[in-house]
Amino acid sequence: MALSRRLVLFFIMVVVNIAVASEDYVWPVDAKQALTSTFCEFRPGHFHSGIDLKVYSSVGLPCRAIADGYIIRLKVSPTGYGKALYLKLNDGKTAVYAHLERFTPEIEEIIKIIQHQNKFYALDYFPEDADTTWFKKGDIVAYSGRSGVKHPHVHFEIRDHLERPLNPLTNGLFAADRFQPTPRKLAIIPLDGESTVERDCQTRLYNRLVKNHDGVYRCGDAIGVQGRIGIGIEAYDRADAAENLLAIYRAELYIDDKLLWETKFDRFSFSETRQIERERGYQLKRRGKGDFHLLFRDIGNTLNMGNGDGIINYGYEHDKSLEVKIVLYDAVENNSTVQFRLVNDQVEDINRNVGGKPLIQYRPAHSVDSSLEVNIMRNFLRLTGPPGINSFRINNGLNFVTTANIVTGSVSAAWTPPADYDGKFHLLAINAGGEEVTSLEIDITPAYPQFHNEILSHDGMCMVDIPANVLYDTTWISIIPEPSFNVGGLIESVYLIEPFDQPISSKVKIKILAEDKPNQGGWGLYYFDQRRGWTFLSDSLKSNYYVAEVLSWERFGLMRDNDLPNIKVTAIRDGSSINNHYPEIVAFVTDATSGIVADGLEMRLDGVIVPAEYDPPIDRFSYKCWRPLSPGKHEVVIIARDRVDNLVKKQFHFNILK
Known about the structure:
Blueprint: H1 2-16, E1 35-37, E2 42-43, E3 46-47, E4 51-53, E5 62-64, E6 69-76, E7 83-89, E8 94-103, H2 105-118, E9 123-125, E10 134-135, E11 140-144, E12 154-159, E13 165-166, E14 182-190, E15 196-197, E16 204-206, E17 210-211, E18 216-218, E19 223-239, E20 242-246, E21 250-255, E22 258-264, H3 276-279, H4 282-286, E23 293-294, E24 306-308, E25 312-314, E26 322-329, E27 335-344, E28 357-358, E29 373-376, E30 381-385, E31 389-394, E32 400-403, E33 405-407, E34 410-415, E35 424-431, E36 436-443, E37 445-447, E38 453-456, E39 462-466, E40 475-481, E41 491-498, E42 508-513, H5 517-520, E43 523-529, E44 533-538, E45 540-542, E46 545-550, E47 555-560, E48 566-570, E49 576-578, E50 584-590, E51 602-605, E52 608-610, E53 613-615, E54 620-624, E55 632-641, E56 647-656
Parallel strand pairs: 18-27, 19-27, 49-56
Antiparallel strand pairs: 1-4, 2-3, 4-12, 5-11, 6-7, 6-9, 6-10, 7-8, 8-11, 8-12, 12-13, 14-16, 14-19, 15-19, 16-28, 17-18, 19-20, 19-23, 19-25, 21-22, 21-26, 22-24, 26-27, 29-30, 30-34, 31-32, 31-35, 33-34, 35-36, 37-40, 38-39, 39-42, 40-41, 41-47, 42-46, 43-44, 43-47, 45-46, 48-50, 50-54, ...
């Protein structure tokens, strides 16, 4: 009955308010209108699905209903959105408020009841009666906080009737913005082994864009290209009232004044969010070069936010330069322009300076056995060697010869292996006199998108399991043992999986042989993060392998966690006496190796499990008594587990005075 009444109410709301403009929304939080991030900014593996509202380090600011509506969902979690509220609006859209400190008192009471019934902090609640959760425009619906994150802010979203995130800044919210977007870098990208930029088959970066007197940004002399070329651009925007660097809203690419590509960040679907690694330059990001928007439709990119093809075809017959123009916009149509020329890089022009820098610098000192290098690019291999090499020969029955192009500080050539290539070949470098000057043995395993690929390391200890349709294109996998990382009894079986800068569309499995480690206890599979060090993935055992699902190629290894979690109780000490009948029990729970698992935390008060809140960014585990405690002695037991099931228990008592 309540559900049907809710549907009728919603239908009446839509009919009555169909003419109400969404531009009438009020600002979602009681703070000066300022943004700390915008829609579709890069987040690891996904698009940012809303905007972040600045609260000036405050907690507890009122959050307002941007329009009339009712609550359809309340979610409470120690991670992710933290405490979040979903408000169905009178125009059919949904407003989402996340990282809240608390809800209104009436809603808080409902949440507390459910948490104590479930004896668990996290919940996902869908109110059934719209009458009891109805708010008018401007009403307080919650209060700002930092739940699920380290720094206070309000994450705010607007979603359509299919729960697809919309850009709030083009759907009813306005943030003052007098600034034009600022382009920072260009990337000119060869898209196959037959294409070059300045005679090299790798991406070239132009990091110095100069704003001229006419307001247009330029990068110097014309850029030499050949074949199928894509363009990427790194840019940022600003808005009034905050110094944060924000994402652009729209980018257009013109060739000789003809629109070739447009990206517009209006909407996306959560099912598409991993395609951020197709809309952005993944290889550039992984190599620390920046956050580039690709102004062409890369393989696997089916996003509707991009319109066109964007690929520039510059054939050998071209003798005319191409005029390239990129126009960048923010949500209020402030714009800036980048212009440059493309010319034929096979035509000698002594008056043209070669600018920019190659993505991969040739560093022969890093090669132990040879001065030759092989880099896995898109769907081809780049061969590199020192100056003086005239050609490369690929042996082992292939007998393929390719001419070496002279590039900055080295020579290079591209090779696209045949479909039946097994991954092994002998690379020879030949000088102008036809003599072999150096060589390199290559052993990499081809992996094809249409097939299920299982690749085993030479020692049989490590396996990469790649389901079909996970790779975007043909690539070549190397499983490289790294014994220098081993620390006997603590870190073992370390392997580097290459190519680290090639994206995958969904999860693959990494498997490392367990041997006798399950009998020792505490072992798990980790990956090495450059900032955080060894980071736990899984202690799952299948067929005597530790197995983890991952979304990128990394350095993986087995690591042992022998340490127990640490529990430090504050505020109330063992044996203390207090006057407060509503005390807050606070502990800080840490684990130095595998980390604390939220579901493994438990707090008991007088033998009853209570829904204590875990705050991972600051390691805080706490419970504020919801009902008054009686005078006398009370017992608290805190249990903490790490990710490999090491367990510790802390028990203490306190007294409440009459």
